[in-house]
Amino acid sequence: MKHNKPSRLSAAVTLALLSMGGAAQAQDSSMQKVEITGSSIKRAVADQALPVTVVKAEDWLAQGMQTIDDILMSMSTASDYVPNTTSGNGNSANMRGIGTSRTLVLLDGKRLNDVAINPNSIPVSALDRTEVLRDGASSIYGSDAIGGVINFVTKKSYTGASLTLKGNAPSKSGGGESRGLSFTAGKGNLGSDGWNVYITGDINQQDALPQSARPNITSDERLASAGFPPPKLTKGSNSIPANVTLANGSTKVGNITIGGNPYYASGCLAPYSTPGLNNTCTASYTANSLTLTKESQEASLFTKGTLMLGEDHKLSASLLYSSIYNRPVKNPTFGINASIANFPALTIGPNSKYYPGKGIVPAMPGITNQTLTLAWSLYGDLGPTVLDYKTDTTRLTLDDEGHLGAWDYKASFWSALYSTRTSFRSGFVNSYDLLAGVANGQLNPFGLQDQVGKDYLSSISTNGQTANAGLTRMNGVDLNASRELMTLPGGAVTLAVGASAYHDFSYNSIPATVALSGGQTGATAATNQSASRNVTAAYAEIDFPITKALDVDVAVRTDHYSDFGSTTNPKASFRFKPAEWVMLRGSAGTGFRAPTLAERYFGATNGPTGITSTSYNDPVLCPGGLPGATTGGTALPGYNPSTVCNARQPINTGANPQVGPERSKTFNLGVVFTPTRSLLVSVDYFKVQLRDSIGQLAQPSLFQNPAYANLFVRDAKGNLLYIDDRLTNMGGVRTDGIDLTTTYNFPKTKWGQVGVQLDGTYIHEFETQVDRNGAWISSVNKFGPLDANVMNFRWKYGASAKWVSANGDWTSTLNQQYKQSFEDRNSGTAYHVIDQYTVYNWSMQYNGFKQWSLMVGVNNLFDRDPPAANYRGEGYSSGEASPLGRVYRVRATYTF
Questions:
Q1: 455: burial class by Cβ within 10 Å (0-12, 13-18, 19+)?
Q2: Which of 3, 245, 263, 882 could make an S-S bridge to 642, C-beta 3.0–4.6 Å?
């Protein structure tokens, strides 16, 4: 883009990136300045006092990365960014491992939502660069930017048109393929025409990968190596045929032990179940892993128009729309037992033709005409449960920026609408009608259904109905201005001031007609809830270039929440450059995060909101097993083994109106060495302290630690009503470690130039304090007491080697991702360590054609399986690696 006349607004900034994703430096930085994430004051990129990593979009694309998922999963500071295979919630970044809600995601410097979002709503084709601030920025963007900030910066303008086709295919057949296209078209030159408008869009489709397509990942041998007991050593719960116990809780009739399965002796019902302990049948499917990846479709559109009003004023407007659709495959429908949310037990009486011993189903010792409780899975008749998740995002932004007198200013208005809808696709029925069908003899809980049973299940299906729907609406304005105040020996003192205000409204609805569908919830009435808040803020930042070598920056921000009051958070940072080849930098600040509307208001109740994600023994009513185990316990006399042993227990995991805000302190100290123009080494120490942290205990911790016995709410007879695991203010979280980045460019040769880089994070300590003034529990290289799925690796890194040919037509990148071994979430029945995981990705890009750009690549070059693991009950470490195996990638771009 050429300009007829220089403009203070449009000064070009060239970011010289050393190798792939390297730390950014500026060429001729004394003259060229830009606003970088973490500060409201424009300055040369090389003069940043904060640890910011800036990566141009073309560098990501040259590596074969095709979605925002790909980009964030390669960042060591993202800590935990994993494929979400079992729900419709969007993937999200979790910087420093302290929670997705404490990582602020921005689009062009403006917040997207007050909760974790799916960044795939942003089309990659619209990106100019990504900026990752590995430091808190509460004093600039909002008090909740505790773990760090990821800012996706879109193209300022675009002229021309291009079309890109892309696709991925695993080397092994069976599913998991993906395909997509993107386009960009724009017209107008800001310099010569004074205007530009462009539109860009992405469409991506991902096929599901069935578990059956990767038997090597969930084979019996692999499961056994991860600590899973063989089915024959597991006491069966929900299965087909159904396991039974006496409804009155008795376990003996005379000297005869009661319970088990009428088909145990004949081998149960292959392939749905196999014989287990205590004459029971055990389900043959693995929890939450009926598909290893979920089917999804993503479509996003972004358009921006810019108009220059003279040299120093610019108007722009942008519109983002995205629609993301996911179809996860979950566990099958099962009958609810009596302990779940006071819902009636699934029972069968002697009037049913399917009662054991009545002629169709084999008799069982001691069972005559008693009422029986059933632990039944409908997997054989209904298959797994499949949900349709749909998320729509619409976001409009209007910007006016320019120069008035001595002030540079920018005023913005933005409005965002997020809507979600979950509907039942297959495998769901109304639970009340399910109970009735068993009671009246139309349904056979001990085998596959005859035509009468099939017709009945079809008549009570809730497939196609809405399970829940939600809406979030945010409207806001941002104002900021900056100017030079005076001159110090190091340069001009610069002041920036700003203010913002936004209204946050959320609505959630669960229709009554489907509240019981699927047998997985005890809700009995429609739930319609809404909540809102207003947030206003004002901030100021001042930069003091005391000398050419020393620069000090001070900022402070005050936020006011209509439902919490006010909070003020300062931050100070410095940059000291005693020589051209070395720079010291550091910062310290505070943060404050109010609970989101969902955390405080939605689903708040004194009672059970659902059931545990897996089966457990009630530690009081089914003693004898190891803490947290699902086997080995024996029900106390008078209690039903099917509800107190190896059962999914009632639990409240909902919102809490009493939950309060959390507060933080962050500290960073680093050094950057550039002894030559080719070598850069940066080492940054970080420390984050969080108190009154909002969270809930991981479910295994509830059963493994007797200290949490007070959370088991029981009636006067000792029956478990529910486990109180609502969100609450914990003691705190503290973590510290080192971020390391080193890049080196080898000398140019006639063959081109090679650059190498290593970008890693070493965690010295990550500790959680569950109760105020309680003990600090370490969770480095092992799971902590709160989130059972966050993996805080002691050491993880990404390394790369990038070659660019002498004429620039060829680019090749070899990338290595390493994650250290990790102690598994062990239940006490076995001890297992998740293996370290190293994967290599390679790509080659050619730009020598006049209008074509071609890329081919291979992810997981050596086809390494993900490590075996038991922490999610899936058999492999889905939070660490992809189950696809080796994947071939191709992309072709045609420029018109």
A1: exposed
A2: 245
CA 385 – CA 58 distance, rounded (Å): 41
Q: What span, in angstroms and rounded, lies between the C-alpha atoms of 491 and 545? A: 6
* Per-residue tokens: 896: 């018109």
Let me know how long the chain is. Answer: 896
Please tell me whether residue 440 adopts helix, strand or coil conformation. coil
pLDDT at 693: 87
Element (H, E) at 439: helix 431-439
Q: How many CB atoms neighbour CB 593 within 10 A?
A: 27
The pTM is what? 0.84
Residue 216 has pLDDT above 80, yes or no: yes
* Cβ-based neighbours of 310, under 8 Å, separated by 6 or more: none
Q: What is the pLDDT of residues 690-721, one digit of tens each?
A: 998 888 888 888 888 888 899 999 998 888 88
State in Å, rounded, how far the first CA of the chain is from the last one: 17
Provide the residue type at 825 as one letter.
R
Exposure string of 869-883, with b = 16+ CB inside 10 Å and e = fewer, is: bbbbebbbbbbbbbb
CB 462 within 8 A of CB 514: yes
- Residue 848 has φ and ψ, to the nearest 5°, of -80, -20
Domains identified in the chain and CATH numbers: 52-221+290-332+385-428+463-593+661-692+731-895 (2.40.170.20)
Q: What is the percentage of the chain residues whose pLDDT exceeds 70? A: 84
Instruction: Annotate 701-731 with three-state secondary structure.
Output: HHHHCHHHHHHEEECCCCCEEEEECCCEECC
- What percent helix, strand, coil does the chain show, rounded to 5? 10, 45, 45
DSSP assignment of 61-81:
HHTT--SHHHHHHT-GGGB--
Mean pLDDT, residues 749-763: 94
Write the DSSP symbol of residue 782. Answer: B
- Token pair listed for 230: 């063989």
d(CA 320, CA 304): 9
**Residue 2 CB-density burial (10 A; 0-12 exposed, 13-18 middle, 19+ buried):** exposed
Radius of gyration of the chain (CA): 29
Write the single-letter amino acid at 143.
S
Torsion angle of C-alpha atoms 247, 252, 253, 256, degrees rounded to 10: 130
Which stretches within 569-698 are classed as H helix? 597-600, 641-644
Phi, psi of 609 (to 5 degrees): -110, -5
* pLDDT single digits (tens) 98-111: 777 787 888 888 87
Peptide bond into 241 cis (omega under 30): yes
Q: What is the pLDDT of residues 512-545, one digit of tens each?
A: 666 555 544 444 455 778 889 999 999 999 999 9
CA–CA distance from 667 to each of 261, 554, 670, 686, 877 (Å)?
60, 14, 10, 6, 32
